């Protein structure tokens, strides 16, 4: 997989990368998340552009219906929560290690994941992962 100089990423996918557990996901989605996670871990200075459009992980999501997110309403609320809690904006640029730190410090470490991602079907799975991150 070839990642561009700047990686466009939906804000909620930052949480997904930090807390990723393959349980319950399709094999193509698992593979892209593992590659993305490995890439970001080995490139902590990677420039991230926060995006409100489909990103690299969306290509492998079962809710992507020919370029239209079938969970757009649910993810919009999650994105809004993440942006507010982490002091971020769509279109803003941030390096991965700083984005990861903000997500951990402002959401995971202060037990706000259930409030932030309350409409996500993977919430319980991610809560289980929280203890491995902080």
Question: How would you characterize this protein structure?
Answer:
By secondary structure, the chain is mainly alpha-helical. The protein has one domain (6-133). The protein is 50% helix and 11% strand. The protein has 6 helices and 5 strands; from the N terminus they run βααβββαβααα. It has helices spanning 11-18, 27-42, 72-86, 96-108, 113-116, 123-133; strands at 6-9, 47-50, 64-65, 68-69, 93-95. Strands 1-2-5 form a 3-stranded mixed sheet. The chain is globular, with a radius of gyration of 14 Å. The chain starts with 5 loop residues before the first strand and ends with a helix.
Shape: globular
Major sheet: arrangement of strands: 1-2-5
| Average of pLDDT | 90
Distance between the termini: 29 Å
- The low-confidence parts are none
Order of helices and strands: EHHEEEHEHHH
Quick structural gist:
The protein has 134 residues and is mainly alpha-helical.
What topology does this entry show?
Blueprint: E1 6-9, H1 11-18, H2 27-42, E2 47-50, E3 64-65, E4 68-69, H3 72-86, E5 93-95, H4 96-108, H5 113-116, H6 123-133
List keywords for this structure.
mainly alpha; 134 residues; globular; 50% helix; three-stranded mixed β-sheet
């Amino acid at each position: 997989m070839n990642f561009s100089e700047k990686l466009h990423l939906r804000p909620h996918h930052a949480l997904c990368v930090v807390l990723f557990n393959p349980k319950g996901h399709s094999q193509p989605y698992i593979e892209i998340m593992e590659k993305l996670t490995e890439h970001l871990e080995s490139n902590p200075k990677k420039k991230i552009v926060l995006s409100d459009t489909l990103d690299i992980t969306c290509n492998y999501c079962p809710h992507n219906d020919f370029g239209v997110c079938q969970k757009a309403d649910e993810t919009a609320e999650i994105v809004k929560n993440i942006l507010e809690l982490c002091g971020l904006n769509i279109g803003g640029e941030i390096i991965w290690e700083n984005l990861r730190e903000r997500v951990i410090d402002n959401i995971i470490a202060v037990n706000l994941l259930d409030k932030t991602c309350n409409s996500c079907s993977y919430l319980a799975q991610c809560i289980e992962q929280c203890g491995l991150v902080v």
